[in-house]
Automatic annotation (TrEMBL):
Gene3D superfamilies: RNA Polymerase Primary Sigma Factor, Winged helix-like DNA-binding domain superfamily/Winged helix DNA-binding domain
Entry's Gene Ontology BP terms: DNA-templated transcription initiation
Keyword set, alphabetical order: DNA-binding, Sigma factor, Transcription, Transcription regulation
Alphabetical list of Pfam families matching this protein: Sigma70_r1_2, Sigma70_r2, Sigma70_r3, Sigma70_r4
Every RNA polymerase sigma-70 region domain range: 54-123, 135-183, 224-276
Protein name listed in UniProt: RNA polymerase, sigma 38 subunit, RpoS
GO MF assignments: DNA binding; sigma factor activity
Domain called RNA polymerase sigma-70 region 1.2: residue spans: 17-47
InterPro entries named in the record: RNA_pol_sigma-70_dom, RNA_pol_sigma70, RNA_pol_sigma70_r1_2, RNA_pol_sigma70_r2, RNA_pol_sigma70_r3, RNA_pol_sigma70_r4, RNA_pol_sigma_r2, RNA_pol_sigma_r3/r4-like
Keyword DNA-binding listed: yes
Length: 288
């Protein structure tokens, strides 16, 4: 059976209740092997107090195991809860006559409880438990390999390390990523720290911007209806209204076969008419 290893990961201590729990568990005294044997005998006879004492004395080991599975879709307190259930199962099934310590037997039950919860609750697409186990072995092998060689191993190297076929490794690696809620954050906080407030839309416009621009286009089109066709054309081309880019005075003059000065006069007259008829302060600001 694989020995218990104490996790070196930094514990996510988010939440006052979790902090208090970790502090209380750290103060629980350990029990001796002789006490484990006596408690196991009492548990088989239905002693609930003995069950509670054996489980409580080993809660710190559940925390140690749970820390190894952080960042895989469940919060630390959920991992601890599932591990505690596994510890209870182990306590009810422990056979002290076989000559090994309780925690050596319980670790398997704790890990299985945590892995089962991860399998059922953390993924959008549920994976079989055996796939989860392979993924965990891959992660452990990759971590050890990287520490030695200062790089990540390829599929062939992972296959040699854990004795699993290359194709199986590739399949598991495709499903080794964990979904992240954009409403959450690295520290499970809300508000300004939520991931949704940190994501950039790149070149995409926000819905509000699109609505404002569409509304502005409609208002401007309706407003330009008071101008003549030539005045409306000059204003639209000069300000680039409905166009990819505005035209210069020279370009407008060329298109209308007018002088640049005549185009400037028409533009000035048109803007003056618009300002006099503008009942909307927003349009006045837009026209300058």
């Amino acid at each position: 059976m694989r020995p218990l290893s104490i996790a070196k990961q930094v514990t996510d201590r988010g939440g006052e209740s979790l902090k208090r729990y970790l502090l209380e568990v750290s103060r629980i005294p350990m029990i001796t092997e002789d006490e484990e044997v006596k408690l196991a005998i009492k548990i088989r006879s239905g002693d609930i107090e003995a069950l509670e004492k054996l489980v409580t004395a080993n809660l710190r080991f559940v925390i140690s195991v749970a820390k190894q599975y952080q960042g895989r879709g469940l919060k630390l307190h959920d991992l601890i809860n599932e591990g505690n259930l596994g510890m209870v199962k182990a306590a009810t099934k422990f056979d002290e006559t076989r000559g090994f310590k309780f925690i050596s037997y319980a670790v398997w039950w704790v890990r299985q409880g945590i892995l089962q919860a991860i399998t059922e609750n953390s993924r959008m697409v549920r994976l079989p438990l055996n796939k989860i186990n392979v993924i965990n072995r891959i992660n452990e092998a990759c971590s050890q390999f990287e520490q030695i060689h200062q790089r990540m191993p390829n599929s062939e190297e992972i296959s040699e390390l854990i004795d699993v076929g290359v194709e199986e490794i590739k399949i598991c690696l495709k499903h080794a990523f964990w979904p992240i809620s954009i409403d959450g954050s690295k520290n499970d906080m809300q508000g300004e720290n939520a991931l949704v407030n940190r994501l950039s839309a790149g070149l995409l416009e926000s819905p509000e911007t699109s609505l404002i621009e569409n509304s502005l286009k409609k208002d401007v089109n309706d407003f330009l209806g008071i101008l003549s066709i030539r005045e409306s054309y000059i204003i639209r081309m000069y300000f680039g209204i409905g166009e990819e880019s505005p035209l210069t005075m020279d370009e407008i003059a060329y298109n209308l076969e007018l002088t640049k000065e005549r185009v400037r006069q028409i533009k000035t007259t048109a803007l003056s008419r618009l300002k006099k008829n503008a009942n909307n302060n927003f349009l006045k600001d837009y026209l300058g």
